[in-house]
Amino acid sequence: VDRVNTEGTMEEDFHRKVRMFYEANRQGLFTYALSMTRDREAAEDAVQAAVCRLLRRGRMPAEPRPYVFRSVRNAVVDVFRRRGNDPEPLLDVEAAGRDGHDPGLIRLLEQCLGRLSEPERETVVLKALNGMTFREIAAVRRRTVATVASRYRRGLEKMRKMLEDRG
Amino acid sequence: MNEDLEKTLMDAPKTGVPDSLDAKVEAVIRQSERGALPFPARRMPLWAAAAACLVCAIIGFFAGYGSVPETGEAPAGVVYVKELSGPVPSILTAETENNGTGFFQKARGEVRTIYRR
């Protein structure tokens, strides 16, 4: 009976941790999935698939963030290809106006992000938009820290030049 | 300069998480709590499923064809039927001796009945 109770408590604890993890990372996971699919529905499905994978695992990984972000990536790569000719924006221009940001700048940033190569955009989204560390990104992408850091710097540099060219 | 850009990106409002995603995730967590998490239904393009079917069928055909021995080769073995009476031994013998058209059409076996002394 004790063992059953302990297992039950562990299970409850696991589900509580999954909920907490999702609450803390829902925006980041969705933005990341959206940056690859550029399709809202496909991004939702990819995040759901990643959470399902975590739940099937039955226990939290030592580093949940790289694990789940990598699952999102795998779901996108395996199943959900980029679709449509009208990519979903990553940044919310309407909200920018309400929040006191410059909507023109946010629109410009969106365009710049769209012009980066996929590896560069992915790294910029994970680092600058989601605040992940290079070490976490390296775990998600299965690349070295030096590689992701270089991609990130190259991506930012490209964006900066694009912004300068547009005044 | 890059630091400014980094900060702007960090603070930029992102496209919000749709309520439907929260509902989907909550649904799978609840299913998991009930121990009823469904097997992942991976989306597979129809052409990929059809191609996989075709490949399996081709492999199966050649594997099956290759495993059937050609007639005229040495017998594969002897089947000993212990003190069987009735039609079974004769059916088995007839089938193997006459290259019958039934189940033993391509059998290369020999049937011998052993009688108790």
Report on this model:
- The complex is a heterodimer of chains A (167) and B (117).
- Chain A has 167 residues and is mainly alpha-helical.
- Chain A is 77% helix and 0% strand.
- Chain A is globular.
- By secondary structure, chain B is mainly alpha-helical.
- Chain B has helices at 2-11, 19-33, 46-67, 87-97, and strands at residues 77-82, 109-114.
- Chain B has a two-stranded parallel ribbon with strand order 1-2.
- In chain B, β1 (77-82), α4 and β2 form a beta-alpha-beta unit.
- Chain A binds chain B through residues 11-12, 15, 18-19, 22, 26-27, 30-31, 34, 40, 44, 47-49, 51-53, 55-56, 78-80, 88-92, 95-96, 99, 101, 105-106, 109, 124, 128-129, 131, 153, 156-157, 159-160, 163, and chain B through 1-2, 5-6, 8-18, 20-22, 24-25, 28-29, 32-33, 37, 40, 42-43.
Structural descriptors:
heterodimer; A: 77% helix; B: mainly alpha; two-stranded parallel sheet; 4 helices
Q: Quick check: average pLDDT of chain B?
A: 74
Major beta sheet of chain B, specifics?
Answer: 2 strands, parallel
How would you write the strand order of the largest sheet of chain B? Answer: 1-2
Kindly name the structural category of chain B: mainly alpha
Quaternary assembly:
heterodimer
| Secondary structure tally: strands of chain A | 0
Q: What is the number of strand segments of chain B?
A: 2
Low-confidence residue ranges of chain B = none
Q: If you compute it from the alpha carbons, what radius of gyration of chain A comes out, rounded to the nearest whole angstrom?
A: 18 Å
Number of helices of chain A: 8
Distance between the termini of chain B: 104 Å
Largest interface: A-B, 46 and 28 residues
The number of distinct helices of chain B, counting runs of at least 4 residues, comes to 4
